[in-house]
Specification:
The chain is an alpha/beta fold and 231 residues long.
């Protein structure tokens, strides 16, 4: 059973999310401040965090940043409609996705399932090779790890899923919408900006010079592709 931590200072929202997610068989942990969330993650087994942005004591952005220092579990931000800047900031510091309030229960469940699937890498009808090596990049799907020229790099579940998608089909161009749908389970108007943030993070971790990438290339007006041939 997966354990989901719901962190929001609005107890009614926490209660509603608990009902939606416990009905799907998930174990639920609850926090009402960023500090409480950090404390729970340090003591309990947590597989995914739903994190509100605006909270007392420690807000969701600060809590996400602290969590990312030690944990790669999926983090989905709970945001208000007018918090576009905070959404981008949250993605910049390591959040995997966001859900805008007021939310649809079906969307919440779909996004949670998608992120957990990415985290455990259990999804997909077609069997893919466990190891993909292109240039100096080696992706081990079974071990959920990536090395660059023999040195390990740490990727979030969403970053890993995007890199795996691109490396499985080198030379193929994927639109931002297609990439977003792959990692989140649905298209969104914000797909382009969200994917761009994740691509930048991946480049910072695998490229020698991120501003002049060797591997992940932009095809202007179309999307992204991974350059190179599988070994």
């Amino acid at each position: 059973m997966y354990n989901i931590l719901i962190c929001d200072d609005d107890r009614d929202i926490v209660a509603a999310l608990r009902i939606y997610l416990s009905g799907e068989g998930y174990g639920i942990l609850e926090a009402h401040t960023g500090r409480e969330a950090l404390d729970i993650v340090s003591k309990e087994t947590v597989h995914l965090v739903l994190m509100d942005i605006m909270m007392p004591e420690m807000d969701g952005i600060s809590a996400t940043s602290k969590l990312r220092e030690e944990h790669n579990i999926p983090i989905i931000l709970l945001t208000a409609k007018g918090e576009d800047t905070d959404k981008v900031l949250g993605l910049n510091i390591g959040a995997d996705d966001y859900i805008t309030k007021p939310f649809n229960p079906v969307e919440v469940i779909a996004r949670v399932k998608s992120q957990l699937r990415r985290y455990t890498m259990l999804g997909g009808m077609e069997r893919k090779p466990d190891h993909i090596t292109i240039g100096g990049i080696d992706l081990d799907d079974a071990g959920k790890s990536v090395t660059v020229d023999g040195e390990p790099v740490s990727l979030t579940p969403t970053e890993f899923a995007i890199l795996k998608l691109l490396m499985e089909s080198p030379g193929k161009v994927f639109s931002s919408g297609a990439i977003y749908a792959h990692v989140s389970g649905g298209y969104a108007l914000s797909a382009e900006s969200s994917v761009a943030v994740h691509i930048r993070h991946i480049r910072e971790k695998i490229e020698i010079t991120p501003s002049e990438p060797r591997y992940i290339k932009v095809v202007w007006g179309q999307g992204y592709k991974f350059e190179g041939e599988k070994k």
